[in-house]
Design goal:
The chain is of the alpha/beta class. The chain has three domains: 125 residues, HUPs (Rossmann fold); 92 residues; 191 residues, DNA Cyclobutane Dipyrimidine Photolyase, subunit A, domain 3 (Orthogonal Bundle), CATH 1.10.579.10. It has 24 helices and five strands. The protein has a five-stranded parallel beta sheet, with helices on both faces. Helix 1 links the parallel strand 1 and strand 2. Helix 11 runs antiparallel to helix 12, helix 13 packs across helix 23 and helix 17 crosses helix 18. The model has no long low-confidence stretch (mean pLDDT 96).
């Protein structure tokens, strides 16, 4: 009996899902498959929190599919082997999935599936994901193509999906059944597309009003940011769905933007929508260069920087033990919760690259493992930008001291995450090493014993990093490469 197969990857939803919708129109029963490759567990950018989150989302997907009459097969193994097995049992007429923009390994996996389909005369259709344009000829035309895509009509969820009668759905395993030691997060979002929609609505109903003013602080950002990223990265929700609802809100606000009910929304919605455009813009970069986790988009510039791995610096940075309270609070909060706001992510990476002069590959991997929302295209593009290895972005080295005073003036966030400083008053919270010995004793925090002394002099080291970066950026061969990087990857917004 021929069947159509939907291969779910990072599109764990039934709504606005073209692969599922097209498969449901085929004359054959539909098999839904979700596969996790064991080699992913070995990858150094993937951590246990990612796999647990995917399994949770797949469990929610399985329930949604059941309400449509369909069953979800789960496989932990090689996807080609699983397809061969299904093919032997049923004969696959067509395979449907979404395009995935990932690092080299996922391209290789997808190519092996294409090859297998050709060899077995299975029609394989891959549908576009969000605003990433496969085979884009020039960045000049990217924005109009992306906008047309994400502003398009939502795809209707099939009313029913018929699976083969004798097919049994698999229980989605717990992470430990795959040999993964689970890691508890202090905050773990509810998984799945229904939860994604309710997070979106809670943002558009009220939380998002303070998006513009609250997004930069790790304290206000927790509420004011949409917190949609883990859902977007596993495809529980699409950028088109988010834009659709955010535009509806915008229409309502435009009727009377100055009313008390609508105050704050105009600028917040506009900032939010530009972040959604960045999402696609940055993933488009990885679509062109799948080795961004290893090779800088501007290798000439990166080569001149010659950053060095220093294990002591790396460990202090990675564990939030640098002796800079605000930095340590941000890193420890990220380790505990799997999320931190954009500005603080930028600071974490920039401190590693400019102030501590560590290679971006190592520090980028550490952050990738910590972010629950790890999205390779955004992540590696941002790591490159915040490390100054693109040649087309300004050198922006964050000062921990400035961020600390701007974002956490009273030190509440610091005290929340750096218990050693719990009794230190606001006067010294940003630079506790300035306390006298007597004050350190009085506030129960002996620097160098209870809490580390600063790993380096922040101001001096940051300045050194910035100056080395400017001098590398100005070299003629680097500038030539930077022009090329702009042609391929640069945002055309300013030029327009
Ligand atoms: C070094 C570094 C690494 C990052 N790694 C990731 C990552 O792995 N996954 C990830 O989703 N985001 C990453 N970001 C971007 C950004 O920090 C997160 O998208 C954001 O903090 C997620 O929270 P939110 O969903 O509440 O965002 P919101 O501010 O509510 O934004 C909504 C959505 O817009 C997109 N977005 C927001 N900011 C950016 C941005 N600067 N660039 C591209 N898209 C953006 C995301 O899809 C986000 O979910 C990284 C940023 C930096 C500086």
């Amino acid at each position: 009996m021929p069947v159509s197969v939907v291969w779910f990857k990072r599109d764990l939803r039934v709504s606005d899902n073209q692969a599922l919708s097209e498969a449901s129109k085929s004359p054959h029963p539909v098999i839904c498959l979700f596969n996790i490759e064991p080699e992913r567990l070995e990858r150094n950018d993937v951590s246990e929190i990612h796999i647990e989150w995917e399994l949770d989302c797949a469990r929610a997907l399985s329930e949604s599919l059941e309400t449509l009459g369909a069953k979800l097969l789960f496989n932990f193994g090689n996807v080609v082997d699983k397809l061969s097995q299904i093919h032997q049992q049923y004969q696959i007429a067509s395979l449907h999935s979404h395009e995935e923009t990932g690092l080299t390994w996922s391209w290789e996996r997808d190519k092996s599936v294409t090859k297998w389909c050709k060899e077995n005369e299975v029609t394989f259709t891959e549908y576009a994901t969000n605003g990433v344009i496969r085979g884009l000829q020039s960045r000049d035309h990217w924005k109009s193509q992306r906008d047309a895509r994400v502003d398009g009509e939502l795809i209707t969820t099939p009313v029913t999906i018929q699976s083969p009668e004798n097919l049994k759905s698999d229980l989605i395993p717990e992470a430990k059944e795959l040999g993964i030691t689970p890691r508890e997060l202090e905050y773990r979002p509810i998984a799945g597309e229904k939860a994604a929609i309710s997070v979106l609505f809670s943002f558009l109903d009220e939380r998002g009003r303070k998006y513009r003013s609250g997004m930069s602080s790790p304290v206000t950002g927790r509420e004011a940011c949409s917190r949609l990223s883990p859902y977007i990265s596993t495809g529980c929700i699409t950028i088109r769905q988010i834009l659709h609802h955010s535009r509806r809100k915008q229409k309502k606000v435009r009727i009377n933007p100055r009313s008390a009910e609508n105050r704050g929304w105009t600028s917040s919605l506009s900032s939010f929508q530009s972040r959604l455009a960045w999402h696609c813009h940055f993933i488009q970069r990885l679509e062109f260069e799948t080795t961004m986790d290893e090779i800088a988009v501007n290798p000439e510039l990166d080569g001149h920087l010659e950053r060095v791995h220093d294990e002591q610096r790396y460990q202090a940075w990675a564990k939030g033990q640098t002796g800079w309270p605000f930095f340590d609070a941000c890193m420890r909060s990220l380790i505990a919760t799997g999320w931190i706001n954009f500005r603080m992510r930028a600071m974490l990476q920039s401190v590693a690259s400019y102030t501590l002069w560590l290679p971006w590959q190592d520090t980028g991997l550490h952050l990738a493992r910590l972010f629950l929302d790890y999205e390779p295209g955004i992540h590696w593009s941002q790591v490159h930008m915040q490390s100054g290895v693109t040649g087309i972005n300004s050198v922006r080295a964050y000062s921990v001291r400035k961020q600390s005073e701007d974002q956490d003036p009273e030190g509440d966030f610091i005290r929340e995450w750096v218990g050693e400083l719990a009794s230190v008053p606001a006067e010294f919270i940003h630079e506790p090493w300035l306390m006298t010995q007597e004050q350190q004793e009085m506030y129960n925090c002996i620097i160098g014993k209870d809490y580390p002394a600063p790993i380096v002099d922040e101001k001096v080291s940051r300045k050194e990093g910035v100056s080395k970066s400017y001098s590398a950026k100005g070299k003629p061969e680097v500038k030539r490469r930077s022009s090329l990087v702009y042609e391929i990857h640069g945002s055309r917004k300013r030029r327009n």
